[in-house]
Amino acid sequence: MALTSGPVCVVGGGPAGLALARSLIAHQIPFDIYERHSDVGGLWDQSNPGSPVYNSAHFISSKTQSHYIDYDMPNDYPDYPSNKQIHRYMQGFADAYGLRSHIHFNTGVEHAEKVKGGWEVTLTNGECKKYAALICATGTNWHPSMPDYPGIFTGEMRHASTYRSMDEFKGKRVLIIGAGNSGCDIACDAAQSADKAFISMRRGYHFLPKHLFGMPADVFAHEGPHLPMWLTQRVFGVMLRILNGDVTRFGLQKPDHRLFETHPILNNQLLHFLSHGDIKAKRDVERFDGKTVHFKDGTSEEIDLILCATGYKWKIPYVDPKLFSWKGGKPDLYMNLFSRETPDLYALGYMETNGGAYKLFDEMADLIVRTIEARASGGTAAATINRLITSDRPDLSGGINFVASDRHATYVEIDAYRKHMAKLRQQLGWPELKDGDFIYLRVKPQSVAAAE
Q1: What would the mean pLDDT of 150-165 be, rounded to a whole number?
Q2: Structural domain count, the chain
Q3: What is the separation, in whole angstroms, between the first and last Cα of the chain?
Q4: Whole domain around residue 30: which residue ranges?
Q5: Residue 185 and residue 211 in contact, taking contact as beta carbons nearer than 8 Å
């Protein structure tokens, strides 16, 4: 069924925007994608201004859990593909499904204004266009968040989004602030290249290896026994104590939370470098005094370069923030997709979870597109989804008591999310998305088409 009330505007040609494009094509809904850069891929294209991707960046989920439905990653890709391989995969996906013809490259959205019957979208080239619905797919890692400490640091201090190569560390005493997956990756680069390297952490963390029993950790979690979360936490906790031992011997703090109650850190290299003395763990920063950094444990170090891997502010700058409700600095969306306040406003990619994103993006994009269809035609499904978006607040924690922080305000456990999504589809009479649903859309290579 095609949309009858007008075309859809999608902002962003990254991973989320591409998933939306394929779903919109499958449902024969007219749409335009606006991408401010010259190619697809979003942050995975290092040439995209503002991309935070550094040279050593790899996926933290494995290739078999991270690909789009009906479009596997190449067999010769490693378990954890590099940023360049991921970008090539994005490009291949866009080509395979003929998505580029729907994308207006080098054209951003300056402002999207809610008007009667839809949206008036002002582009960076000065054009103004009207759309029936707006889908924000510009992502969350574009607006760096910097910490604020007492004192003045006279060395070089910048956000990790500006970091590219370990060559930047040569001949320097380097401090990495922040212990997310990017912070730990960059700390490993510093351990190999800097004269001295340190990592500052506010709390202790659980470190998961990328492989368990000879397979990627997420494959083991997907294919292994599915236990209640409380038991999974205990079993994996014991396993990590056996594999890693007592990590406080490396100067790390003991975790103040149970396993999985923060975003998991998939990195065993950092423990390797800590155990060899190539990098040292420090507590949170207390204050600066010139190039001297004082830490909350009473120690201090002379530092030349500080890189702050301290996350990002979630912004959708082209939309009036009042059109969303916000929680912990993040849009409070139903199922992380639907504005509760504005019926024709949608978003994809504004969530964090503990699993591979792209298959999930496919399922989420399909929900958005079916909702657009239902609202255009009216009827029972439209009334049901409208009621749920307004009032339903499902528990998507999967039984995990997440750490009370802004980062986890919109965090979901992937299995719990999928279960509720299946329940929602059943309620609405919509089929589940499965392998094979997009095969018929594949664009045949020119050589094959010519031979036929």
Answers
A1: 98
A2: 2
A3: 30
A4: 8-143+312-451
A5: no
The per-residue pLDDT for range 9-59, each reduced to its tens digit, is 999 999 999 999 999 999 999 999 999 999 999 999 999 999 999 999 999
From 280, 308, 336, the end of a domain falls on 308
Per-residue pLDDT tens digits for 279-337? 999 999 999 999 999 999 999 999 999 999 999 999 999 999 999 888 888 898 999 99
Same domain as 124, residue 29 = yes
Q: pLDDT per residue over 245-288, tens digit each?
A: 899 999 999 988 888 888 778 898 999 999 999 999 999 999 99
User: What's 446's domain CATH number?
Assistant: 3.50.50.60
What DSSP element (H or E) covers 104? strand 103-105
Place of tokens 């029993």: 213
In angstroms, what CA-CA distances link 296 with 177, 252, 257, 293?
Answer: 13, 14, 20, 10
Domain end, chosen from 308, 326, 357, is at: 308
Residues 285 and 410 in one domain: no
- On average, the pLDDT of the chain sits at 92
Q: What share of the chain is helix, strand, coil (3-state, %, to 5)?
A: 35, 20, 45
186, 307 Cβ separation under 8 angstroms:
yes
CA distance 199 to 134: 41
Verify that 18 and 131 share a domain, yes or no. yes
Distance CA 4, CA 377 (A): 8
- 3 within a domain of the structure (yes/no): no
Q: Identify the pLDDT of residue 444.
A: 60
What is the Cα 41 distance to its own chain's centre?
Answer: 13
Same domain, 125 and 220: no
Name the nearest CA neighbour of 281 among 197, 208, 207, 206: 197
Look at the pTM and tell me if it is higher than 0.90.
yes
33 located within any domain? yes
Are the CB atoms for 308 and 159 separated by under 8 Å? yes
Q: Is residue 176 located within the same domain as residue 103?
A: no
